[in-house]
Specification:
By secondary structure, this protein is an all-alpha fold. It is built from two helices and no strands.
Length: about 60
Amino acid sequence: MTVFLVTFLVMLVVVGIMAIGVIFGRKAIKGSCGGASNGNCVCVEKCDRKKRQEARMM
């Protein structure tokens, strides 16, 4: 039971630190495809949002 409580508290602290980082960093959490700042996607297949964006540009 002690191992469970220690593990739970450690996970709670880690999640709390991540939440504080997101709140003060003001940056959205993004995936590998959405995080590209230059518009190039590293995904093998383009996501629907990227396809719509490219269709509007044409």
